[in-house]
C-alpha cells in the first residue's frame, strides 16, 4: 500500500520525505522481443469517489488520463468506484458508507471528484454530503492538505488580476485539515441565557496538531523558495495565539527557512494586492479553506487547483479544491484540469511515481499551449471546449512524445 505524508510509503519515520520511492514492481512485464527494454509493471489500487454534480464528469476524464500516463510508465491501476456524498445518501442513507471508507483505507490512493448539491442542502448536519467528506478526511487521518496555486504563463490572461500582478505567482497553501473549528467541541445548537436560539463551534488546536502541520510546511518551504508565512488571527483568537507560539517554536528546527506571520484579514488582502510575495503559506483548517479558494482565482479559475491530503500513514486523498458546481453540472462545462492535476499529485505524492506525474503535468501544459480552454479559463483567440473534449485533448498530449519531453 502506498501514500501519505512521507509522500508515499504507508508508514513514516521522518516527518516529510519529499523524495518518495516508487512501489516495487510486482512482476516482470510480458516476455517479448522488447523484453530487454520494457519496464516492469507496477500495480496500484485506486479508490475513485466521483461524488456529486460535476464530480462524476471530472473523475471520468481524470481516470482515463491517469490510466494512460500510468501505462506509459509501466504502471497498472485497478480502480474501485464507491459512492460518496449526496450520491451515497440517495443510495444508502448516509454520506459516507462504511464500505466506502474501508475501500478508501485499503487503497493505495483515493481520487475524489466533489460532493454536495442543492438537493441535500437542507439536510440535518449528519446527513449532509459535506459531513461525509469531513468523515472521510478524519477516517483517513489526512491532516495535511497541500493546495498549490501556480499561474501558468498560458493562463495569465484568464486571471481576474492584472497581468503584472498575476504573472509568475507560484505559491503553496498548506492547510491543516482534520482539526480546528471544523472538528472542535463543544459544537451544536442550543439556547443562550436569554432563551434565544444559538449555534456554536469551537476553534481549538492542541500542540501536536500544530507541530506536525508546521513541520510539514517548513519541509515544503525548504524545498521551494525557503519562505514560510504562517497565517492566523493571533490579535484576537486564543487558538491563533497558541498556533503562532508553536509555529515559532518549530521554526528553530528549520534555521534555513524564513518564517513570517500574517493576520488572515491582511493575508486575504495581500493575496490580491501582491500575491508574488508568498512562497509557502501554512494556516488552520478554515482560513486555509477560504484563502485557497481566493488563491485559485489568481490562477484563472477554481477549476485549475488540485490538492493532496496526506497523513502520517495510509493512503492519500487527492481532489480538486472546487465543489460540485451544481450550476453547471450535467452540461459538459466543467474544467477537468484541477482533477487531472490532482491525479498528477496522486502519482507524485501518493505513489512516488514522479515520471508519470510529470507526463500529466506536461500534457496539461501542452493542451493549453495548443489553445484548448473550457469556459472558465477561456480568453479570445483560444478554442472553447467542454469537459470531455478537454479530457480527450489532454489524452492526446499524454500519448504524444511532448508529454515526456517538456
Ligand atoms: N471538496 C468538495 O467536494 C467541495 C468543495 C467545495 C464545495 N463543495 C460543495 O459543492 C457545492 C457547491 O458549492 P459552491 O457553489 O460554493 O462551490 P463550487 O466550487 O462548487 O462552485 C463555485 C463556482 O465555481 C464554478 N466551478 C467550480 N468548479 C468548476 C470547474 N471545475 N470548472 C468550471 N467552473 C467551476 C461553479 O460553476 C460555481 O460558479 C456545495 O454543496 C458545497 O458544499 C464541495
Ligand atoms: C465541502 C467542504 C466540507 C470543504 C471544506 O470546507 O473543507 C470544501 O470547501 C473544500 O475546500 O474541500
Proper CATH architecture of the largest domain: 3-Layer(aba) Sandwich
> What's the pLDDT, averaged over the residues?
92
| β-sheet strand percentage | 15-25%
Estimated radius of gyration: 21 Å
List how many beta strands DSSP finds. Answer: 14
Q: Classify the fold: give the CATH topology of the largest domain.
A: Isopropylmalate Dehydrogenase
Largest sheet: 10 strands, mixed
pLDDT < 50 stretches: 1-22, 24-36
Helix content: 25-40%
Read across the widest sheet, the strand sequence of neighbours is 2-1-3-12-11-4-5-10-8-9
List of distinct ligands in this structure: nicotinamide-adenine-dinucleotide, 3-isopropylmalic acid
Question: SSE order in H/E notation?
Answer: EHEHHEHEHEEEHEHEHEHEEHHEEHH
Find the CATH superfamily of the largest domain: Isopropylmalate Dehydrogenase
Number of helices: 13
**Structural class by secondary-structure content:** alpha/beta
CATH class of the largest domain: Alpha Beta
Number of domains: 2
Describe the global form: globular
Distance between the termini: 30 Å
Function: Catalyzes the oxidation of 3-carboxy-2-hydroxy-4-methylpentanoate (3-isopropylmalate) to 3-carboxy-4-methyl-2-oxopentanoate. The product decarboxylates to 4-methyl-2 oxopentanoate.
Subunit structure: Homodimer.
EC number: 1.1.1.85
Pathway: Amino-acid biosynthesis; L-leucine biosynthesis; L-leucine from 3-methyl-2-oxobutanoate: step 3/4
Amino acid at each position: 500500500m502506498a501514500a501519505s505524508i512521507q509522500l508515499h510509503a504507508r508508514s513514516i519515520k521522518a516527518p516529510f520525505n519529499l523524495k518518495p520511492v516508487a512501489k516495487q514492481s510486482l512482476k516482470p512485464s510480458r516476455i517479448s522481443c522488447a523484453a530487454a527494454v520494457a519496464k516492469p509493471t507496477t500495480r496500484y489500487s485506486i479508490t475513485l469517489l466521483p461524488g456529486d454534480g460535476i464530480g462524476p464528469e471530472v473523475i471520468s476524464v481524470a481516470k482515463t488520463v491517469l490510466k494512460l500516463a500510468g501505462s506509459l510508465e509501466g504502471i497498472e491501476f485497478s480502480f474501485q468506484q464507491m459512492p460518496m456524498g449526496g450520491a451515497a445518501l440517495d443510495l444508502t442513507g448516509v454520506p459516507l458508507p462504511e464500505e466506502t471508507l474501508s475501500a478508501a483505507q485499503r487503497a493505495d490512493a483515493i481520487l475524489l471528484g466533489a460532493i454536495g448539491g442543492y438537493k441535500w442542502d437542507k439536510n440535518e448536519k449528519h446527513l449532509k454530503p459535506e459531513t461525509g467528506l469531513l468523515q472521510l478526511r478524519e477516517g483517513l487521518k489526512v491532516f495535511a492538505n497541500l493546495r498549490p496555486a501556480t499561474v501558468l504563463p498560458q493562463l495569465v490572461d484568464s486571471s481576474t488580476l492584472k497581468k503584472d500582478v498575476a504573472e509568475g505567482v507560484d505559491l503553496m497553501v498548506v492547510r491543516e485539515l482534520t482539526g480546528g473549528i471544523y472538528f472542535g467541541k463543544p459544537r451544536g445548537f442550543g439556547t443562550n441565557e436569554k432563551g434565544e436560539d444559538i449555534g456554536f463551534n469551537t476553534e481549538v488546536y492542541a500542540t501536536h496538531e500544530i507541530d506536525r502541520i508546521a513541520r510539514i510546511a517548513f519541509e515544503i518551504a525548504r524545498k521551494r523558495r525557503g519562505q514560510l508565512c504562517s497565517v492566523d488571527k493571533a490579535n484576537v483568537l486564543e487558538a491563533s495565539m497558541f498556533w503562532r507560539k508553536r509555529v515559532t517554536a518549530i521554526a528553530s528546527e528549520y534555521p534555513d527557512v524564513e518564517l513570517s506571520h500574517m493576520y488572515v484579514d491582511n493575508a486575504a488582502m495581500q493575496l490580491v494586492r501582491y500575491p508574488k510575495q508568498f512562497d509557502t503559506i501554512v494556516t488552520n483548517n478554515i482560513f486555509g479553506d477560504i484563502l485557497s479558494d481566493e488563491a485559485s482565482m489568481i490562477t484563472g479559475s477554481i477549476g485549475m487547483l488540485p490538492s493532496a491530503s496526506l497523513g502520517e500513514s495510509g493512503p492519500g486523498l487527492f481532489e480538486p479544491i472546487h465543489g460540485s458546481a451544481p450550476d453547471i453540472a450535467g452540461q459538459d462545462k466543467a474544467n477537468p484540469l484541477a482533477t487531472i492535476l490532482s491525479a498528477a499529485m496522486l502519482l507524485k505524492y501518493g505513489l512516488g511515481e514522479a515520471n508519470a506525474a510529470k507526463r500529466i503535468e506536461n500534457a496539461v501544459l501542452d493542451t493549453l499551449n495548443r489553445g484548448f480552454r473550457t469556459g472558465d479559463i477561456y480568453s479570445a483567440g483560444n478554442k472553447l471546449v467542454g469537459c470531455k473534449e478537454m479530457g480527450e485533448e489532454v489524452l492526446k498530449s499524454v500519448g504524444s512524445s511532448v508529454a515526456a519531453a517538456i
